Amino acid sequence: MDGVYPGLRFADAPADRPYVVINMVATIDGKTVTGGRDEAVADLGSDVDHATMRQIEAAADAVLIGAGSLRATKGLWYPARLKRYVATRGGDLDYGSRFFTDAPGSAWVVGPRDSVPNQVQCLDTTGQETCWSNALRTIRREHGVMSIVVEGGSELNAALLHENLVDELFLTLAPKIKLGRSTPTYAGGDPLSREQVQRYRLVSCLPVQDEVFLRYAQRGDA
Ligand SMILES: NC(=O)c1ccc[n+]([C@@H]2O[C@H](COP(=O)([O-])OP(=O)(O)OC[C@H]3O[C@@H](n4cnc5c(N)ncnc54)[C@H](OP(=O)(O)O)[C@@H]3O)[C@@H](O)[C@H]2O)c1
């Protein structure tokens, strides 16, 4: 099965961080889960969506996910070449999962060092709320990462968007309805004020059967 972005390449990174993209799949009503928040979502997108996710990963040096997504997705797998980062405040992670064991030299926790086992690599956030501009600067300068794909979930995406650190948004619209007042969406977190609402420009819009593959970039005039 082919994805919709063969040969995808990203623009050059800004000087002080990697090029940052988010990739998610959501229902027509904007929800990003099919079951509960603590469950995996492999049944939300089609095989084309899954192949597209691998193409987006193939264009990046690294992937970043939230601890909630890692906890929800048993057996989460990434190609060995991809550096992988997981954000946590509490460090409650399955350190025996493939995320860590497949490529121990390429896996990092972004969180407080004292909540992470000694043998696990950690970008220490010294117990404070993660400052993502600082963390991304370190990922660029110390690990040489020039592009990173953020694969959710909703809370992590919101943290990065709040700091205005996202260059592109990929969204697969799945032909489904989930409902739910508190069901996670593309990004949760605290709302932006009317003046702070961010604007993006459409790069491409590719329908495949009943799904739509959307790609947006920062307008650059915000
Ligand atoms: N549809 C899709 O494309 C898609 C993609 C990914 C995930 N999902 C689904 O989304 C759900 C998970 O999403 P979620 O919003 O609940 O969780 P999430 O964003 O994956 O993870 C939330 C957790 O990440 C850590 N975290 C988040 N922001 C942080 C920050 N700024 N600094 C430090 N740590 C931070 C915290 O970890 P600790 O709790 O460890 O402190 C937080 O509880 C799952 O059901 C998953 O299957 C869907």
Structure report:
The protein is an alpha/beta fold and 222 residues long. It has a single domain, classed as 3-Layer(aba) Sandwich (Dihydrofolate Reductase, subunit A). The protein is 19% helix and 25% strand. It is built from 5 helices and 9 strands; from the N terminus they run E-H-E-H-E-H-E-E-H-E-H-E-E-E. It has helices spanning 47-58, 67-72, 98-101, 132-143, 154-162, and strands spanning 19-27, 62-66, 83-87, 107-111, 121-124, 147-150, 168-174, 200-208, 211-218. A 9-stranded mixed beta sheet has the order 5-4-3-2-6-1-7-9-8. Strand 2 (62-66), helix 2 (67-72) and strand 3 form a beta-alpha-beta unit. The longest helix is centred in the first third of the chain and has 12 residues, at 47-58. The termini are far apart. The model has no long low-confidence stretch (mean pLDDT 96). Bound molecules: NADP nicotinamide-adenine-dinucleotide phosphate. Residues 24-26, 32-33, 37, 39-41, 44, 65-69, 72-73, 87-90, 92, 111, 130, 151-156, 159, 184, 188 line the site of NADP nicotinamide-adenine-dinucleotide phosphate (NAP).
